[in-house]
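Final report, closing paragraph on structural work. Over the funding period we assembled a curated collection of sequence-structure pairs, and we close with a single example.
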Amino acid sequence: MLKAFKYELAPTPEQTNHLNQIMGSCRFVYNLALETKIHVYTKGVSVNCFDLMKQLTELKTEFEWLYESPTHALQHAISNLDNAFSNFFKGRAKFPRFKSKRHKQSFHVPQGVKVDWEAGALFLPKLKWVKLIVSRGFNGTIRNATVSKTPPGKYFVSILVETGQAAAVKNPMVGHTAVGIDVGLKHFATLSDGSKIDNPKFLFHSLKRLRVEQRTLKRRFRKGAKEQSKGYQKQNLVVAKLHEKVSNQRKDFLHKTSTAIVKQFDTVVMEDLNIVGMVKNKNLSRSIADVGWSMFENQVRYKCEWYGKNFEQIGRFEPSSKICSSCGQHKGELVLSEREWTCAKCETKHDRDLNAAINIRNFGLSKIFRVGTHPLRAKTGQ
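Its predicted structure, as stored:
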């Protein structure tokens, strides 16, 4: 089984400069390769990543500072560009853009990575041993590593490890150990067993201070200046740290919530939401981005694989909120402001989110057991 372990690095000032140089070299090679592919494409010629990799040797003779970076890291930057073009032509992503030093900085090391647990150090090609802040260990074979830099200036390494463990045997799918999850904004998630998880709204609670700090940053910005002042750089770091704090709070909350749900239930059913389309709503975009639905779904999915649990998804067009979970009656129109409604057939009063969670579970189980379309028959898995 493959698992990724993330650690913070504590490089020396010399190693910090070297890390920045490697990231800059990978960015330079990526942008140059992108410029080359665009240029030859206008002439009706196509070049693949292997053709571009062969030109690295000639490129190093012209730019000798590229020798300070691992060759495999430079080659992987070109491979990433080739994947970006493939995703674009398959309709999965937008056209590749040139990378900027103001955006996320990282480089990939596919081999030559070692860890010394006793010394608390990580070996990287060209960098030698870098101090590693060890929070946990692992047993297995290191496949590759990715070094990244955050906006506040911290360095992290994500190590992909082959643990050698076999995939966990999944528990049987039965109705009483399954749960449906309906995510929302008022409550982060409503479970089909009746429990609700409040939305912590980390960004909302930090907005007041963020606005103050960002206004200060804007005042210190000098339009047309070749280089911003030290005061601007310090304030920019303050804003970056605030955003990082919100991001860390969100990740911590999502990890704890997803782990608790996966450990409690044997089968987890969620709805396949069109989050990209929902974010385009100008009234709800910030709240949807803050809640982290996509990250939560991804965490639940891979943790189900870790712990031997079952993960299922229902279609985004399933009427989970409009169907009575007691008798199966379809309500028809249901506006977003209606948080409760009463079934016209069985007169059951429904909480909108709880009813949706129950239906999500039932739809998922009916698909698994192939017992028909009626939601009630899937409750017991019969």
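The two ends are 33 Å apart (CA to CA). The CA atoms of residues 339 and 352 lie 5 Å apart. We thank the funder for supporting this effort.
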